[in-house]
Write a structure and sequence with these properties.
The protein is of the alpha+beta class. It has ten helices and 15 strands. The strands form two sheets. Strands 2-5-6-8-15-9-14-13-12-11-10 form an eleven-stranded mixed sheet. The chain has a four-stranded antiparallel sheet with strand order 1-3-4-7, with helices on both faces. Helix 3 packs across helix 4 and helix 5 packs across helix 9.
């Protein structure tokens, strides 16, 4: 039923146009975003045509005998047209699995797109994964998100942080200059966790240049000194905090509280969801960071799971 085509750069415009119109795609699946780290992954992205119409795409790469969807992205999985039916989706997975098996692959590791990112309901893939592929959940990460329309009251400690920042003369501003904040972020992650940001400064500057409306930096400044910041990934349904960090002085002055107050109560108050992202320390989603979760819950955030499935071909 489906003509399955391997993605190449010649398909970039068609792919990007489909992602923008799909019912569960975000700019992370635009090739201008995906391909910034193309050298790290053996791309195996697929396009699914039915009677000449593109009905689905699958961002993916291969490592050994396993197809991944996609380890270079926060979430992944099948991006679907509004016209794709559940019956077609079942057929799509059968034909996908036959193709992968014929090409010598033995396993599939499938990241699902959390439902808050869907423009329209789009869990046909989850039904097919269970009933057609007999997939099993092998990792469940814990994230926290806010239904902004619910207007849950912030905890007292978060409200007091905003007051401290205001009294200290903290100015919250949008900036296109990422260098100062990247120093704050890198120092903080290195000191606290012994890790580096997922993106280098050069990479985040490149991505911001390509997606200036989707990647937005808020900074807290006092006397021209950057004391903290938050990098947002803005998608049609969700405002996601990709990075959030402050200096020791900034933490004492509540600058992160002040930044989130502007984001949630002013600039993005009419968005459906705000997603803080994961609060765990291990790749399988274990190691819940209770201190981090407590901070996020203080803003009114509640639980959302990011699931990874596996099945054998």
């Amino acid at each position: 039923m489906f003509e399955v085509v391997r993605y190449t750069s010649a398909h970039a415009d068609e792919w990007n146009d489909f992602v923008a119109k799909s019912k569960n795609g975000t700019f992370l699946f635009d090739r201008r975003y995906m391909d910034y780290h193309a050298d790290r992954f053996h791309d195996y992205s697929l396009m699914f045509f039915c009677k000449g119409r593109l009905l689905a795409v699958l961002p993916a790469h291969v490592d050994g005998d396993t197809l991944y969807t996609h380890r270079g992205l926060t979430y992944g999985g099948l991006l679907m047209s509004e016209q794709l039916t559940i019956a077609q989706t079942m057929t799509l997975f059968r034909e996908l699995n036959d193709k992968l098996h014929a090409e010598g692959l033995k396993h599939v590791c499938y990241k699902a797109i959390p439902w808050i990112y869907h423009r329209l309901s789009a869990e046909e893939d989850l039904y097919a994964l269970f009933h057609e592929c007999r997939a099993r959940i092998v990792a469940r990460d814990y994230s926290t998100n806010i239904f902004l329309g619910a207007n849950l009251r912030w905890e007292r400690v978060r409200r007091r942080g905003v007051t401290r920042a205001e009294r200290a003369g903290i100015r919250v501003e949008i900036s296109n200059d990422y260098a100062d904040f990247w120093c704050v972020l890198t120092d903080n992650l290195g000191t606290k966790y012994g890790i580096k940001p997922v993106h280098s400064l050069a990479e985040i500057e490149l991505l911001h240049e390509r997606f200036p409306q989707n990647i937005v930096l808020y900074q807290a400044v006092r006397e021209r000194k950057v004391l903290g910041g938050v990098v947002l990934y803005v998608t049609p349904q969700v405002v996601h905090a990709q990075y959030s960090s402050a200096t020791p002085e900034g933490k004492s002055l509540g600058v992160i509280d002040a930044i989130y107050e502007r984001i949630m109560h002013h600039d993005y108050k009419d968005y459906p969801y705000f997603d803080f992202g994961r609060s765990t320390e291990n790749t399988d989603g274990s190691g819940l960071n209770e201190t981090l979760v407590f901070q996020k819950e203080g803003f009114g955030a509640r639980g959302l799971c990011y699931d990874i499935y596996e099945y054998d071909l």
